């Protein structure tokens, strides 16, 4: 297990009409690595055949010249995964390629289906055999159902059967289809390359890497087709009939600062969150320091709003990746220590404001606070650029269990004592939503507020699809 056991989820990339499609996918996935490090995969099509390569680990570990070279064809989709539904393992690595009555299809999925278990039970009752434990296979099973194939738009019909958060890429031998759930929970962007070919990506940072121009997002409830005649759009849910619920946590923590998600740049949103935090919760202090990397943008904003100078308090070791595996608790805390080193001269004898984007379990934050104390910080005031995380996410973000969330069932005062800080303040929910460009009613904030915009009728535990024991190596 990684020393940091909080999990990201998935990243998608697809490109149509390029002889180097698999290679562009590889580059795109590399830049989306922050969205998932468990497994990676690419499927490419040449008009007839779909070839797929998947593996456990980072993009750079899964692919080499040989495997990329075999992914022939001018269209490809790719996926980086952290398991949300379905435990990690090679058989759950994506894209998932299957052959059904209409031919081969490959699917890559970012998000979480809420009714996957129910649908799967229904299919198993009719004798269907599932190869994986991920909910993505349920989508494929739905697509293969003859009565669904008989519909004018089988995919649109199927998407109306599934509930939850999803961005999906489908690769057929001759085209790519990209779909986004009616609430627009996860981001999905469309880009155009210099030669006019199109690509799609979870975040615009992947478009930048392949030198594609950002065109727009796939709209909530839209299916975009990329084929030999260009880009085509259709809707499986009438636009404007569902109020969007964009995931606020994308802006707060998940997305890359260079990306634009939900049509605005992530770094600048985070800076505004920090400014607002500075206005809501000022404190007399000598320096503001960020917890790198995720706290950097907010710390800049906090400093700008409060007038307290920004100082570099920590240096991050960029080489302590997944290789630093420590099975014991002591080993894990050593790893946290190794990841960030305090610059004593920045904090010794000073009143320090520490800014971070979020606190989940609180354990790594506590370690960093102790390190600041040992380096001589006279006062430590922690400021967090989102409200206390108190509720689970059913839409694809793999938080620890509710009981493990440090803010669950605890007051700010109690958390402050646990962390060992002189003061602690979180950004208010209204303050956070005010920093986004869109209508505050168009964002999901369930993990802070407990208000679930998509009814969570069937809660799927990560392992609830794992009934049979099967192993693949
Ligand atoms: P904690 O003190 O809760 O152990 O760690 C807080 C840190 O975890 C923050 O710096 C925050 O950026 C980071 N964080 C928040 N959510 C996630 C997540 O889902 N995955 C990972 N790896 N880190 C997270
Ligand atoms: Fe995002 Fe939180 Fe909503 Fe999950 S519950 S989709 S993490 S805002
Ligand atoms: Mg962080």
Compile the SSE list and pairings:
Blueprint lengths: L10 E6 L4 H11 L7 E7 L4 E7 L2 H4 L2 H6 L4 E7 L14 E5 L2 E11 L2 H10 L10 H9 L1 H4 L4 H6 L4 E9 L2 E6 L8 E4 L5 E4 L2 H6 L3 E5 L4 E6 L2 E6 L10 E2 H7 L5 E2 L2 E2 H15 L6 E4 L5 H11 L7 E3 L12 H11 E3 L1 H4 L3 E6 L6 H12 L4 E6 L27 H8 L3 E4 L2 H6 L8 E2 L1 H4 L24
Parallel strand pairs: 14-23, 17-20, 20-21, 21-22
Antiparallel strand pairs: 1-4, 1-10, 2-3, 2-4, 5-6, 6-7, 7-8, 8-12, 9-10, 9-11, 12-13, 15-16, 18-19
Helix pairs in contact: 4-5, 10-11
The structure holds guanosine-5'-monophosphate (5GP), iron/sulfur cluster (SF4) and magnesium ion.
The site of magnesium ion has 4 residues, from loops.
Count of strand segments? 23
CATH class placement of the largest domain: Alpha Beta
Number of domains: 2
Strand line-up across the major sheet: 3-2-4-1-10-9-11
CATH superfamily of the largest domain: Aminohydrolase, N-terminal nucleophile (Ntn) domain
Residue windows where pLDDT falls under 50 for at least 5 positions: 1-8, 458-473
Mean pLDDT: 89
Helix content: 25-40%
Number of helices: 17
What bound compounds does this protein have?
A: guanosine-5'-monophosphate, iron/sulfur cluster, magnesium ion
Strand content: 15-25%
What name does CATH use for the topology of the largest domain?
A: Glutamine Phosphoribosylpyrophosphate, subunit 1, domain 1
Which architecture name of the largest domain does CATH use?
Answer: 4-Layer Sandwich
Distance between termini? 17 Å
Whole-number radius of gyration?
23 Å
